[in-house]
UniProtKB/TrEMBL annotation:
Coiled coil: none annotated. This is ABC transporter permease. The keyword S-adenosyl-L-methionine does not apply. The chain crosses the membrane at residues 20-38, 64-85, 118-143, 149-170, 182-201, 232-251. It comes from Streptomyces sindenensis. Keywords: Membrane, Transmembrane, Transmembrane helix. It comes from the Bacteria.
Amino acid sequence: MSAEPLAVFGKALRDQRRGLVFWGAGLALVTLMYTSSFDPDKVTESASGFQKALALDDLATGAGFLRATVLGMIVPLLLLVYVTLTGSKAVAGEEETGLLDLYLAQPIDRSQLLVQRFAATCLAVLGFSVVVLLELLVLNSALDMKVEFGNLLVTVIGLALLVITFAAVAFATGAITGRRSLTLGITAGYGAFSFIVNALASQSEAIEPLKYLSAFHYYLGGSPLREGFDPAMLVLLLAPAVLLGLGLARFKSRDLNV
């Protein structure tokens, strides 16, 4: 391995280049398929509590439709899968296979490896978010969805921060435990918890306080597609830094699993 300052970052992107193309194409196709089904004449009468929990009671407006489908559920959950798989492999997966020892035998320390691989994943997430944003800008105009550009931009930025938070969970868990299966379980479990709690918080007083533990709450809680930027989104800037810091502190001090 080269000792260049960004050698790990570059290699992480090169190793994923084919997968990134497929993921980007898949996200573009899914976004097109679901957004194209927008119907401003669709009216949901007597919406059930379950429909309200999933924001399916307002599909006739562009903001409501995107909140319930593409930006509120489909794309975030697909990207959760991506960062869960990527984050669990980045440290824990290679530690279990013995590859991590080979990397660390080169002139690079653990902090560089963890931070640069996380940065590569963040860049991929940002790239996917740009693809989704550009496509939605075209569809927003073509389908007359009437979502303001600024609100759409803020929401997609929030989407990127949400997914990066999930990526930080995966990287931190892998760095702390060195166990791929545990990393997969914790990251996927937190993602499911966040989505479900955010959906049900408005329907249950018992669940409502738990929304502050949900990353989805800080992403969609302020209705960014209608209201624009919500200061609560700043939590999604702080959380990844804290999580990665915790993972890095443990990763630098513990013995690797052999």
